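Final report, Chapter 2: Outcomes

The project's central promise was a pipeline that accepts a single protein chain and returns its three-dimensional structure in a standardized token representation, suitable for archiving and comparison. That pipeline is now operational. To close this chapter, we reproduce one record exactly as it appears in the project archive, with the input sequence first and the structure output second.
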Amino acid sequence: MRTHFKRVEPVWIAALFCGLLFMFLLFFRFGFFHKDTSFVLLGNKLISEKESWMNILQQDKKIGYSHHRLIPKENGFSLFESTCMRLNTMGMVQDVYIHTNGELNSDFSLASFLFNLRSGMFNFRASGKVEGNKLIIKADEQEFEFLLENNLYLTAGILDAAWASGLEKNQARTFFVFDPASMGLRPVRITLHGSESMEVMGYKQNTDKVTVDFMGSSMTAWIGEDGSVVAEEGFMGIKLVRVSKDEALKGLDLPIDQDVTDFFSVASDVPIKQRDKINSLKIRIAGINDSLSLNGGRQSLADGILTINKENIPEIVAMSGDSKKIYFRPTPFVQSDHPEIKSKVSEIVLPDDTPLAKAQKIMRWIYENIQKRPVLSVPNALETLRNRMGDCNEHAVLMAAMARAAGVPAQIETGLVYMKGRFYYHAWNVLYLGDWVTVDALMGQMPADVTHIRLIRGEPDKQIDLIKVIGKVKIKILEQS
């Protein structure tokens, strides 16, 4: 038995935009670093007030600007950073604003912060403070506590801290980044490579070249003699260049020549026709990482060849009590226990409905009631329900939250999906209906078609693992039947 609703054009526009969301938010989103060893500062009095403005370029076209200010205080520093980007994809233009305010101790460790990410109707806020060995975070209507083993550092100030620490040539240090936008913790390695002379705002300046290695991707920064960052280069042709305030605030160039979604897509060597009628797909996939979730369920991987077989809806078999707990529980952005989500679910399903009937009704409601449009924000089930719009990420977190609220075990999968000759990064769900069955609420598919290639299964914080493979994956179609 298969459930499938007629698709509309905005579906693939929203799905294509998922890759853009993944990468731009990973590059600019807010996080913290905590260090594995302590360091000694050069002295607070040696660090004067600093302010810098930078243009953000993609393929040498301006898409935004960033403003950074560090103010020394009696017992530490105040840090302010604002980023504005204008992104054009599939003819849709969106502005995204990211603001970070941090109060730092004299060793640059975090005392407190305020963070805001805003785009269109979506507005994500978080605040927090360090109390003893705890980080207490308030995000939207929730509060979280995290135990700390070491000092914590603000991402927006980590290069200030690295410069002030007296990092020596060819010396590297490992940090761990905590990202409240995904509630994830990952290692970051910072290396000082030595001095380079470069032109900054028309003048030659000596700089220290630093690389930041994060999960297989690398960013390079050049730090001036006063400790200010004068240039950065990252993945997918993104650069930050030091400019004057007036230059930074000048109008933005719409990147019309290059569709940004193509940066994150993977070419298909042959077209796939009528993908919803294919029952099995066999591909050769390269550039993947062993830590990804390619093997298992409807997917099997052997010697670089991945086979995906469309599953049938199984007979309902209950999952054991201990096994299903993790797939029912609420998480920071899948708020399955929130009264608004539970209330809406009670309107959609009946208490006596089978798990399959519940899944079908919830998927249909999301498909028909959530506007399919690109959203640059943190995927959040509750906000998606309230705003009634979103891309694949919003559809996936809402589907997971509503299914769990209805008593159906649910997870989120992220990976690639075929559309118009290429594979694009995408998110969907798996629900336990006697066995795990794929569900794509954005496309109205149950099971999802076999061009959905799972790379990761888990909560939204796991999506950050995609950075290991984006820009590296190669796909060759071997069989489609």
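Archive annotation: The two ends are 18 Å apart (CA to CA).
This record, like all others produced under the grant, will remain available to the consortium after the project formally closes.
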